[in-house]
UniProtKB/TrEMBL annotation:
This is Protein AF-9 homolog. It comes from Vanrija pseudolonga. It is found in: Nucleus; Cytoplasm. Component of the SWR1 chromatin-remodeling complex and of the NuA4 histone acetyltransferase complex. One of its GO terms (biological process) is chromatin organization.
Length: 399
C-alpha cells in the first residue's frame, strides 16, 4: 500500500484550545511599555489537555501561589502534526506576522485595543492537508454582566456621632443632635422640620457646603440620597455600592474555546503518525486549585464556610461551561459570598477543560435541540390551524 494512499471512511480528531489571555499592566510593566498601553495579552494555540498541577508539600499549609499569566492546555507536544503556526497581529505592531515553528504556539504583547487575530496552521508534509485558518478576537475587558456583585460594606458608627435624621416635628428641637432611629425611619418627607429641610438642597439646585444637622462637618455625604437613608433600629447600615467591580478588574480576562482538528480519510503514513501520538485524555474533573471563595474562608479560619462555599459554587462560568456543580450565579448583592467566583488567578473561568464540561455542553445542546423541536411543533400547529381557517374563509367567499 502506498504511503500517500488515503484510507477511506476514517476520521481522526485532535482536541485543541485557542484564544487569548489578558490582564492589566503592573506599574513596572507600564514603565517599559509603549505610551498608552494598558494591558498585557497573549494569543495562543495548544492541545486541549492541561498538565496536572504540581504537587504541594504535605507539610505546607500555605495556599498555592496565584499565577496571573496562567494559560490552560499544552499537555501534548503537537509538533508531530503541526509544522508552524502564524499569528497575524494588527498592522500597527512591528512585524505583524508572528511565526511559531515549535511549541508553545504563543505570542505575547502589550496594547490598549481589541482586534481579531487570524491563526494560520500549517501541517507537516506527511499530513497532505491544506493549511487552515482560525480567527479569534482578543478580549481585554470583562464584557457583559459584572463578574462579581459588589458587596455593601457595613459602616460602623463613629464614636460620639449619630447619623443624620429627619424626625417628626413634634418630637424634635430646632437643632437636634440625636434622634431615635425607629422614628427617623418612619418619618414622611412632608413632616420634616424646616431646619433639616434647609440643610438638604432642592432637586436641581447646587449643594450647600453646610453639613446636615447631627452630622460632623468632616463626614462624607453620599451623592445618592437613597443610600444615605437612616436604617431601622436593629439593622446594619450599608455603604453605597461601588459603580465598577474592583476585585474582578484585577483578575485576567480569559477568552478560550475548545475545538478539534479533524482529519478525514488520512494518508497511510500520516495515520500511522497520529496513532503513534494519541492525545492526552481530558481529566474527569477540574484538578486546579480551589476557588477564591473557598480560599478566602480558609484564610479566615472558617472551614465550615469554606465547605459551604465549595458546595454552593456557581455552576455557570463566563466561558459558557459548567464548573463543579452548585447553584447558578445569583445577581443579588446579598446572595453573593465573599470573593470572585472561578479558580485562583482567574475571573469566573475554569482553568482546565474537563470531561465534566464536555458532558455539560452536550446536555446543554441536547436541551436546546429539544426546545427548538418543541417550538417548531407549536408553530406547525399554528400554521395548520391558520391554513384551515383560510380554507373556510375562501369557501365562504365563493358561496
Amino acid at each position: 500500500m502506498s504511503t500517500n494512499e488515503r484510507i477511506k471512511g476514517i476520521q481522526v480528531h485532535r482536541p485543541i484550545i485557542y484564544g487569548s489571555h489578558a490582564r492589566l499592566l503592573t506599574e513596572e510593566e507600564k514603565a517599559t511599555a509603549p505610551p498608552g498601553h494598558t494591558h498585557r495579552w497573549s494569543i495562543f494555540l495548544a492541545s486541549a489537555a492541561t498538565p496536572p498541577p504540581a504537587p504541594r508539600a504535605s507539610s505546607s499549609n500555605d495556599p498555592p501561589p496565584i499565577d496571573m499569566d496562567y494559560i490552560a492546555g499544552g499537555a501534548d507536544d503537537m509538533s508531530y502534526l503541526i509544522k508552524r503556526v502564524v499569528f497575524r497581529l494588527h498592522e500597527t505592531y512591528p512585524n505583524p506576522n508572528r511565526m511559531c515553528e515549535k511549541p508553545p504556539y504563543r505570542v505575547t504583547e502589550t496594547g490598549w485595543g481589541e482586534f481579531t487575530v487570524p491563526i494560520k496552521i500549517t501541517f507537516v508534509p506527511e499530513a497532505g492537508e491544506k493549511a487552515m485558518t482560525l480567527n479569534h478576537a482578543i478580549k481585554l475587558h470583562h464584557w457583559g454582566e459584572p463578574i462579581e456583585a459588589p458587596l455593601p460594606l457595613p459602616v460602623p458608627p463613629a464614636t460620639g456621632e449619630t447619623p443624620a435624621a429627619t424626625p417628626k416635628a413634634e418630637k424634635v428641637e430646632t437643632e437636634a443632635a440625636t434622634v431615635p432611629k425607629t422614628e427617623a425611619a418612619q418619618t414622611p418627607a412632608a413632616e420634616s422640620t424646616p431646619a433639616a429641610a434647609a440643610s438638604v438642597p432642592a432637586e436641581g439646585s447646587a449643594p450647600t457646603s453646610e453639613a446636615p444637622t447631627g452630622v460632623a462637618t468632616d463626614a462624607a455625604t453620599p451623592a445618592d440620597a437613597s443610600v444615605s437613608a437612616t436604617p431601622v433600629a436593629g439593622e446594619v447600615e450599608f455603604a453605597p455600592l461601588p459603580i465598577l467591580p474592583t476585585i474582578a478588574s484585577s483578575y485576567p480576562v480569559h477568552a478560550w474555546q475548545y475545538d478539534e482538528l479533524v482529519f478525514s480519510d488520512p494518508q497511510t503514513n500520516f495515520l500511522n503518525l497520529l496513532n503513534e501520538n494519541p492525545p492526552t485524555p481530558l481529566p474527569a474533573r477540574n484538578r486546579r486549585p480551589r476557588d477564591q471563595r473557598e480560599e478566602h474562608e480558609l484564610k479566615a479560619g472558617n472551614k465550615k464556610k469554606a465547605r459551604a462555599s465549595a458546595s454552593a459554587r456557581p455552576s455557570i462560568s463566563r466561558a459558557g461551561t459548567e464548573s463543579r456543580g452548585g447553584t447558578p450565579l445569583a445577581g443579588t448583592p446579598g446572595a453573593q459570598p465573599v470573593g470572585v467566583p472561578g479558580e485562583l488567578g482567574s475571573a469566573d473561568v475554569p482553568l482546565e477543560f474537563t470531561q465534566e464540561m464536555e458532558k455539560s455542553e452536550h446536555n446543554r445542546l441536547t436541551e436546546m435541540r429539544i426546545k427548538i423541536v418543541e417550538q417548531m411543533d407549536r408553530w406547525r400547529e399554528k400554521l395548520i390551524a391558520n391554513e384551515k381557517e383560510l380554507g373556510k374563509l375562501k369557501e365562504e367567499l365563493r358561496a
